[in-house]
Specification:
The chain has 212 residues and is of the alpha+beta class. The protein folds into two domains: 77 residues; 105 residues, Alpha-Beta Plaits, CATH 3.30.70. The chain contains four helices and five strands. The protein has a three-stranded antiparallel sheet, with no helix packed on it. Strands 1-4 form a two-stranded antiparallel sheet. The longest helix has 35 residues. The structure holds iron/sulfur cluster (2 copies). The site of one iron/sulfur cluster has 13 residues, from loops.
Length: 212
């Protein structure tokens, strides 16, 4: 059972919890117990003031840093969409695909856990292997896991750095890489909605592939 410190009970009506061990008798504390409780109370007040002041100093320091020369008032500034936003070196964005080396072995499509890679191919006449007639990825299903990248025997598919491929219809989410210019489909961050829209009107792949 606790009690009110004699000097504070009227003014603050705050019940001070001390570590005095034995409870007060009949609601009254001894002089030593009251002193100990007062000491605890002041210690708590000082700790609280110190903690708040320390937190505010950190806030103040970071606020002042934003006004340093060259830093500006914002933490980051990007000239998006005129310039692409920088991403981490191993960022997994929309794919890069090289039609000129793909041998249409289907390994990437088999590895895809959501079956969103569609490969069209025809056997090469008077020769070996296949030629690609289509290489589409449905980005309304792709989860950017990169499992399609690992099994490729000729390293012609990678995760790129493009993160923006906005479109107005679901058809815009399906990208046929074989209809894109090679520098767009293989460029690290050049896949863009305009190029994808232009690829929709092509009926033939832009390149015959390695077996033609
Ligand atoms: S990143 Fe994953 S989900 Fe997307 S196409 Fe590759 S394997 Fe399929
Ligand atoms: S991208 Fe690679 S794994 Fe996929 S079909 Fe072409 S060669 Fe095979």
């Amino acid at each position: 059972m606790g009690c009110w410190p004699h000097g504070l009970s009227v003014v603050f009506r705050v019940r001070v919890r001390g570590d005095h061990g034995s409870p007060c008798r009949n609601g009254f504390c001894s002089r030593v117990q009251r002193k100990r409780r007062m000491g605890n109370w002041f210690h708590n007040v000082i700790t609280a003031v110190y903690t708040v002041a320390r937190g505010m100093l950190i806030t103040l320091r970071y606020w002042l840093i934003t006004y340093k020369d060259g830093r500006g008032t914002f933490t980051h500034q990007f000239e998006y969409p005129e310039k692409p936003v920088p991403v981490a070196a191993r960022y997994r964005g929309f794919h890069r695909y090289d039609l000129t080396t793909c041998i249409s072995c289907d390994q990437c499509a088999k590895a895809c856990p959501v079956d969103c890679i569609y490969i069209g191919k025809e056997r090469v006449e008077n020769g070996k292997g296949f030629k690609i007639t289509g290489f589409s990825i449905d980005y309304s299903k792709c989860m950017f896991c990169a499992l399609c990248v690992e099994p490729c025997p000729v390293d012609c598919i990678f995760m790129g750095a493009t993160h923006d491929l906005s479109c107005y219809s679901r058809d815009g989410c399906i990208v046929d890489f074989s209809r894109l210019p090679v520098d767009v489909s293989w460029g690290r961050a050049t896949l863009n909605p305009t190029a994808v829209a232009a690829s929709k009107v092509l009926s033939e792949p832009v390149h015959g592939g390695p077996n033609q």
